Amino acid sequence: xxxxxxxxxxxxxxxxxxxxxxxxxxxxxxxxxxxxxxxxxxxxxxxxxxxxxxxxxxxxxxxxxxxxxxxxxxxxxxxxxxxxxxxxxxxxxxxxxxxxxxxxxxxxxxxxxxxxxxxxxxxxxxxxxxxxxxxxxxxxxxxxxxxxxxxxxxxxxxxxxxxxxxxxxxxxxxxxxxxxxxxxx
Length: 185
Hints:
Structural class: alpha+beta
Helix content: 40-55%
CATH superfamily: Gcn5-related N-acetyltransferase (GNAT)
Order of helices and strands: EHHHEEHHHEHEHEE
Strand content: 15-25%
Distance between the termini: 27 Å
CATH architecture: 3-Layer(aba) Sandwich
Mean pLDDT: 89
Low-confidence stretches: none
Number of helices: 8
Largest sheet: 7 strands, mixed
């Protein structure tokens, strides 16, 4: 297994993994494009040094951890670069998306970074997710970023367990979503 920094050239592979790992396999092509704009495309283009790829021994792309280290920079870029594209694909959908991302600002003082992680099913029993997470946490610590947060569907017990196993604790329970964080210092 090889873990490396993501680049914009990885976008097609990231999108494939995102689809494979999604709970929503019935999306239309337009919905997939919208999901990529909201949850994928920013990171390798604007936060590549804190976003990592997982490659298997055969060189195949098997997962990623996408991490924006700075909430203010993330939201500024979303507004300037991604809002027009999101609104073109799905008019009126940007404001609800921004509201769903408000936890990032809520916890930014102690947990300025936020992440998304996905690993293809065939690599999940290889501790690939934990390896990616540990590599990210090490990188954040080296960069002096004191904490990272995320949101996870509370019904996804296996995912919640994964985060807990990697040192994350619940910052806020919103019923259907748990907001979790982990310090790096």
